[in-house]
């Protein structure tokens, strides 16, 4: 494993070199195993999307969901995305993984919207790195044709790290998505390198306030004020707001009182496999 550890150590040593330790060697070995298994996960059918309901704060009506990737890793069990998405991003596997996610979410959105009368939007997370590979807009267009999904049935969630690059190519891809009819959400807003100017410079329809802010609205006045300010800015710019990670009735009431339209969180429902999501009632009772 020494050679592969060296290789990984070099690759992760962007901010200077790292010391070689036994620990790193074990880590690197684990990562390599993860990488090669992940490479085969798609063909082996080990990936699954779970869906977490998004509700209207005033009616508790389910208006859509967010697709969240799960990996049933042999001999390990259910693995959550934070454990493998970063590896997929570093190795470039995210291109293929992301395509699989888009295709699967499109199929589901097509199914749910063909069946029901109310629009059910499925939100899909995109990694910044997916924009660096091939023509993402063309790939997405192909997937729509293949699955019969309409852009109106999907929302694309991006993070600030993408906008940070201030790349013309990113801006033009986002504009193409917008003109195709997709809505675009900025995820985890308020964390990382948040710049308010992103909200006007890029075509953003929806702002998702990060869970770390929502968690503190009832206990920390300054966080509460910050959330109110974000809601007010989004309102002025005509953007919708989703509060992420709502866990209590008090948090929901605070957000609703301050004009937040949409919510997502364990209070309403945890991410569920497709079948579980399909059998949820249209209104979720959170009280
Ligand atoms: P995210 O996009 O911000 O997704 C929301 C995460 O918060 C999910 O974690 C969800 O299970 C969790 N969550 C929702 N409500 C609550 C709550 O009330 N309390 C708490 N404590 N947590 C809550 P998950 O599924 O583990 O996903 C983590 C992250 O992995 C996502 O954060 C997203 O950045 C990334 N991810 C997930 N699926 C994909 C994917 O298909 N592609 C890409 N590129 N990234 C993905
Ligand atoms: Mg998201
Ligand atoms: Mg989020
Ligand atoms: Mg988040």
UniProtKB/TrEMBL annotation:
Tree of life domain: Bacteria
Boundaries of every EAL domain copy: 31-285
Full protein name: EAL domain-containing protein
Boundaries of the shown chain within the full protein: 578 to 864 of 864
